């Protein structure tokens, strides 16, 4: 029996999580596994009921269980709340308290969708990128962080800070991941300007000395943003700090045709949080337009990384790939030549594919 905490959250979060849970039930049946699911509120949904983005009790449950599947948080209703009380704070707190410092964001391009990205299809041949984003440091968490009165105006401060050990542990994760792939790591920084990047580069080079089988290169983040579009198939593992990783992963999602396709796994020591890269998309909420693939693939990453159930994870990923390569997509990808499905129809197709293959 495996146990996990499910946090559907806001906007389309609950809709995509329903589909992921359907898939989990199919996996139980096919692989004779049992999962115990405990559901909690997070984000705006939690603010509305408890007045805080996440309760202490939910955080302790997540820490104790160590495995969390999250939909998405946020929405216009809570946009004017101060930073500390916004729905996103739930994510920040979970990342920090579970200490999930390594965020894996794989970008897969399915053959059938190669013609539907604004990037030329010939450039997308063979694109298979893993973004390894540092998740618990940098600008997101550095102190001081404040808006204050300053002479006759206001002044805002964010702090970008990294220690050697913070850089080391995420670098190790990136090199380990590269070993199972094409054995290339591109470390992305801004070492011509930022002190944190200077240290970043030095530490990554030190860690690389323990991985002689991996080819390490460095790239400045502005150039990386350009090279990704010019030559996406040249990348294997991209290792970078929190903010750069946030930005580059949205950029890279364009190769997959839609942000809705991307899953993520946030890993620490013995703990994992799994969530689609897309946000709460309140504009399409409740319309059957959400793409459940990011959430379903996040579930596959959970099975692999938290439970070691590789066959089940592979079976989900193969099913997703078969369904998409057969031309079925949700509203985010709709185009001539593809077959439009609702959120739940897409989930059903993936379930059927798992059970019949
Ligand atoms: C992501 C999201 C979050 C982030 C937001 C919702 C706080 O954009 O997971 O990429 O910036 O990390
Ligand atoms: Mn983001």
Q: How is this structure best summarized?
A:
The protein has twelve helices and 14 strands.
Question: What is the element layout, followed by pairings?
Answer:
Layout: E1 2-9, H1 13-31, E2 35-39, H2 44-50, H3 56-65, E3 67-72, H4 88-98, E4 102-108, H5 121-124, E5 128-134, E6 142-150, E7 153-159, H6 164-179, E8 184-189, H7 195-208, E9 215-220, H8 221-230, E10 237-240, H9 242-253, E11 265-267, E12 272-274, H10 293-305, H11 310-325, E13 328-329, E14 339-340, H12 343-356
Parallel strand pairs: 1-2, 1-3, 3-12, 5-10, 8-9, 8-10, 13-14
Antiparallel strand pairs: 4-5, 4-11, 6-7, 11-12
The structure holds 3-isopropylmalic acid and manganese (II) ion.
CATH superfamily of the largest domain: Isopropylmalate Dehydrogenase
Please state the CA-atom Rg, rounded to the nearest Å: 20 Å
Helix/strand-derived class? alpha/beta
User: Whole-number average pLDDT?
Assistant: 97
Overview of the molecule:
With 357 residues, the protein is of the alpha/beta class. It folds into two domains: 1-105 and 260-357, Isopropylmalate Dehydrogenase; 118-256, Isopropylmalate Dehydrogenase (3-Layer(aba) Sandwich), CATH 3.40.718. It has helices at residues 13-31, 44-50, 56-65, 88-98, 121-124, 164-179, 195-208, 221-230, 242-253, 293-305, 310-325, 343-356; strands at residues 2-9, 35-39, 67-72, 102-108, 128-134, 142-150, 153-159, 184-189, 215-220, 237-240, 265-267, 272-274, 328-329, 339-340. The strands form three sheets. A ten-stranded mixed beta sheet has the order 2-1-3-12-11-4-5-10-8-9, sandwiched between helices. β6 and β7 (153-159) form a beta hairpin. The longest helix is centred in the first third of the chain and has 19 residues, at 13-31. The protein is globular, with a radius of gyration of 20 Å. It starts with a strand and ends with a helix. The model has no long low-confidence stretch (mean pLDDT 97). Residues 246, 250 line the site of manganese (II) ion.
